[in-house]
């Protein structure tokens, strides 16, 4: 059986290019370090699908919308993102909502369903509840974006989570693995050495 195995191995190596056989093993599934180009392509794909399905009320390009999504997942506020893109914070807010990216803390103690279903104008609602018209307009926009996202089963938000939240997690995990490996390698070493 060893002779047969050896013959098969020789035939295999003669008819195949060694680089081709091993090339696919270099970047297999489950790697903690993802290809940046792949992330950009995936982001672009999600944004383009959303553009086809919804009417985006933004003048930002797809690349700028990618920046908005990335910055949102990094925890940046609208005014910070606006500074980076050299646009108004309101434009970033609108773009963020178009991408279904809302923050839970931006609507504390507001009944978004009641606000969205209220048939009054923002001015009438503001007078009824003794609040600012701009706040009513902002909350109503957030309510609409959340309703739109729910109607799509949060599919696009989930895709952003998969691309960007996992990327941040994997970067952090890769960093932790490197640090832990260094700690394990240096554990027990004498560090107070005099030359």
UniProtKB/TrEMBL annotation:
Biased composition range(s): Basic and acidic residues: 1-12
Biased composition (Acidic residues): 181-195
Region described as Disordered: 1-39, 173-195
Name by which UniProt lists this protein: Conditioned medium-induced protein 4
UniProt superkingdom: Archaea
